[in-house]
Design goal:
424 residues, alpha+beta, Helix Hairpins, BirA Bifunctional Protein, domain 2, 2 domains, 8-stranded mixed β-sheet, two-stranded antiparallel sheet, 16 strands, 41% helix, RNA-binding
RNA sequence: GGAGGGAUGGCCGAGUGGACUAAGGCGGUUGUCUUGAAAACAACUGUGGGCAUACGCUCACCGGGGGUUCGAAUCCCUCUCCCUCCGCCA
């Protein structure tokens, strides 16, 4: 949610923002917002004056002794109330329309986010390591997995249809090892581990910026107000809803493992092979609440933490900065981290690290005080995957495969693999 | 799932239609006193919105939403959450 006051005072900044996001249709919505805002303030001026008058007169009536005069006043008040009711109704309508419009405006990109027309304009910042070379033809994970009994696609489909799979034996264990290792790494990096609800209420999903825009990409319960989380970012954003954090509480570093549920309403044939894109996947997420002036640095720190995860796994990765057309709805600036998967021959996006500014904090109403008695301010929030599991699993399997079809378990994961060094 | 009891400010807690401008206490901030501290005393101490250059004025908020009334923390409806008991369950 953008600050209405910002829209009022700097409408051109906001219009420029939606243009560079390649969403020019929103420009007219900014003008609509400005008109509604003016209308709202005019209405408030009138109705609040009437209410002030009503409050005074009501007290007067309470003190009046003369029955006839009292009745006359009451009758007069009834007429005033009709006017107040009518105005209140108009205010409510304007408020609702204003809220709907504000809800669909995306965040303003950071000035350092490069302008671009699409994902082809994302900027490659660096590549760490060389794509691994093999003296044999490396297999894609969809062949390695079933061959070693790690992935069972048929039974996944039997249970839940397309884009579902079963991990079994050392495959399931390897994923669990990755999750446990990542969480422990993040704890060492200073994050507090959280175990969160995997279903959350509408207002929480709204607060993170997924509603109303991404409604179609989410699973929700038909009877209760529950949404299956598409990422731990949603419940983490909601943790401090309606709270004013005490001085000294920031920064807060959280990490959490959750499954993620996404409807993925994309072309039926795209990315169906393997476990790259499913309706359910696991992810370890990092999240930071900090003071506004700290968020630039926090973004770099979080990016380093995500990179560290790739590096310690011995994976070749590259870092991209997303352009204005490709950053998410809530984001101001985003780095994507991609790892090289030699079997399927692709760079796989395993992490997306974003500075959201105060956009989510406004939506979810989380504030903080710099010192006792100071005015509450909105903190900045950042989120980053550390990392998405199926794609990390793909990269590990494909990079650590050997000529005989076995897979070496990366050093750092062995404590969670019961000492298994090679999966055969 | 059933029955009953609750939800008031940072915290505790009073408040069953008009002085609620929410009592009182605790906590907090500032001041007086003190060499300093404690104690005592005094003042201040919520959030959001509108108006105003400003001192400030004003509206809304007593779990959420709706209603009754000239007037609601208080009465009515409804939802949510918490507590107690029963049932069921991992």
């Amino acid at each position: 949610m953008l600050d209405l006051n910002l829209i009022r005072t700097q409408p051109d900044t906001v219009k420029h923002a939606v243009r560079v996001r390649q969403d020019p249709a929103l420009v007219t919505k900014v003008d609509e917002i400005l008109a509604l805002d003016q209308q709202r303030r005019d209405l408030l001026k009138e109705v609040e004056a009437l209410k002030a008058e009503r409050n005074l007169v009501s007290k007067e009536i309470g003190r009046m002794k003369d029955a006839a005069a009292r009745e006359a006043k009451i009758a007069e008040q009834r007429r005033v109330n009709e006017r107040i009711d009518a105005l209140d109704k108009q205010v409510a309508e304007v408020d609702a329309r204003l809220f709907d419009l504000l809800s669909v405006l995306p965040n303003i990109p950071d000035p350092r986010t490069p302008e671009g027309a699409g994902e082809e304009d994302n900027v490659l910042l660096k590549t760490v390591g060389e794509p691994k070379t093999f003296d044999f033809i490396p297999l894609p994970h969809w062949e390695l997995g079933p061959r070693l009994g790690l992935i069972d696609f048929e039974r996944g489909t039997k249970l839940s249809g397309s884009r579902f799979y079963v991990l079994q034996g050392a495959g399931a264990r390897l994923q669990r090892a990755l999750i446990a290792w990542m969480l422990d790494l993040h704890i060492r990096q200073g994050y507090t581990e959280m175990y969160l609800p995997f279903m959350v209420k509408s207002d929480i999903v709204f607060g993170a910026g997924q509603l109303p825009k991404f409604r179609d990409n989410l699973y929700h319960d038909a009877e209760e107000d529950f949404w299956m989380v598409p990422t731990a970012e949603i419940p983490l954003t909601g943790l401090h809803k309606d709270e004013i954090l005490e001085p000294g509480a920031l920064p807060k570093y959280y990490c959490a493992y959750t499954p993620c549920f996404r409807r993925e309403k994309i072309a039926a044939g795209r990315d169906v092979r393997g476990i790259k894109r499913g309706h359910q996947f696991d992810k370890v997420e990092m999240y930071i609440f900090c003071r506004p002036e700290e968020s630039d640095e926090a973004l770099e720190t979080m990016r380093e933490h995500a990179e560290e995860t790739c590096a310690q796994l011995g994976l070749t990765y590259r870092v991209k900065q997303l352009c204005t057309a490709d950053i998410g709805f809530s984001a101001r600036m985003t780095y994507d981290i991609e790892v090289w998967a030699p079997g399927c021959g692709e760079w796989l996006e395993v992490s997306s690290v974003s500075n959201v500014g105060d956009f989510q904090a406004r939506r979810i109403n989380t504030r903080f005080r710099r010192e006792a008695g100071a005015k509450p301010e909105f903190p900045h929030t950042l989120n980053g995957s550390g990392l998405g599991l199926p794609r990390t699993l793909i990269a590990v399997m494909e990079n650590y495969q050997q000529k005989d079809g076995s897979i070496v378990v990366p050093e750092v994961l062995r404590p969670w693999m019961g000492g298994i060094e090679v999966i055969r």
